[in-house]
């Protein structure tokens, strides 16, 4: 019985010590710059951010409601400035469609999942041109 007690004491101290040690969670930084592809096959390229968090790029949609040929369209946006504590930034950008009389604004956040994969979650609003203010409802 005397030999078991020191072993149990050492084991319990090891368990307590491991519970007190700080858990290291990797800090992943979500970076907007690069090529992004959505579930429908649309893709966009975001160029490097400037010192103010502004960026430009291009958007090539895979879907459209017009009969026009789809073309790559320019985008302009801004990312909320981040620091080490805010590694999953919010952002917004506007796409001026080259092949239709419409503009879409996107707003979202860049996330990093537990496997380190970067994911953009966005909401968007499309505004189409109409000929008369009475038709504003369908814009």
Can you characterise this structure?
This protein has one helix spanning 4-20; strands at 34-37, 43-46, 54-60, 73-79, 90-96, 102-112, 118-128. The protein has a single domain, classed as Avidin-like (Lipocalin, Beta Barrel). 12% of the residues lie in helices and 37% in strands. By secondary structure, it is mainly β. A hairpin with a 5-residue loop joins β1 and β2. It is built from one helix and seven strands. The protein is elongated and about 50 Å long.
How would the blueprint of this fold be written?
Blueprint (H helix, E strand, L loop, with lengths): L3 H17 L13 E4 L5 E4 L7 E7 L12 E7 L10 E7 L5 E11 L5 E11 L11
Antiparallel strand pairs: 1-2, 2-3, 3-4, 4-5, 5-6, 6-7
Radius of gyration: 25 Å
- Overall morphology: elongated
Share of helical residues: 10-25%
In what range is the share of β-strand residues?
35-45%
Largest sheet: 7 strands, antiparallel
Mean pLDDT: 81
Summarize the structure.
Disulfide bonds join 30-110. This protein is mostly beta strands. It is built from one helix and seven strands.
Could you list some keywords that capture this structure?
139 residues, mainly beta, Lipocalin, 7-stranded antiparallel β-sheet, 1 helix, 37% strand, disordered N terminus
């Amino acid at each position: 019985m005397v030999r078991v007690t020191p072993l149990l004491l050492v084991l319990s101290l090891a368990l307590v010590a491991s519970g007190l040690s700080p858990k290291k969670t990797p800090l992943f930084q979500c970076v907007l710059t690069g090529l992004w592809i959505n579930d429908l096959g649309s893709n966009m390229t975001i160029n490097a951010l400037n010192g103010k968090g502004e960026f430009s790029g291009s958007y090539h949609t895979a879907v459209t409601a017009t009969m026009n040929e789809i073309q790559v369209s320019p985008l302009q946006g801004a990312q909320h400035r981040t620091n080490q504590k805010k590694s999953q930034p919010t952002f917004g950008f506007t796409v001026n469609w080259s092949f239709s009389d419409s503009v879409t604004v996107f707003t979202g956040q860049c996330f990093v999942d537990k496997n380190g994969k970067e994911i953009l979650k966005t909401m968007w609003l499309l505004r189409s041109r109409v000929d008369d203010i009475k038709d504003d409802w369908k814009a």
